[in-house]
Amino acid sequence: MLFTAGFVAYTKPELLNIWVLIFGAFVCAVLGDNVGYATGHRFGRRLFQKEDSWLFHKKHLEKTQSFYEQHGKKNACFSAICADSADFCTDYCWHRCDALSHIYVLQLNGWFTLLGYFLGKSLPAEQVDKYLLPIIGLIIVVSLIPSIIHVLKENKASRP
What we know:
The structure is a single chain. This protein folds into two domains: about 1-120, no CATH class; about 125-160. It is about 75% helix and about 0% strand. It is built from six helices and no strands. It has helices spanning about 1-10, 20-45, 60-70, 80-85, 90-120, 130-160. The protein starts with a helix and ends with a helix.
């Protein structure tokens, strides 16, 4: 979405200003992260009181705790709901993670948005349709690869 928004910001500057777009995406990402942390802090443990609830399963919380024990605090920064639901984040940890998460989000938002913006700048208007949709499709496929790999590993590990 940020790539496409950056592209639109170049082709329709009267509709979207690139700097407002980057700042707005950053603010929304930070707010979303903090809402996730607050949700995990307030409701996380209650969701896992039963063996299985309609949305969550206790085994997922146990996997989350194991993951954080194995991979350390640095990963808690990028999964606010899970980290706090697993009682992994203390207030000190969260504030430290919050700063790291903000830097990461700003970089990620900026790069994807500017990449779309400069692609829009480099393409002649008559070739936009030819390249934009295939590039967006490629971004979607590449984004799905880690999830697909994870599911395949999980299925392989669960087989006897």
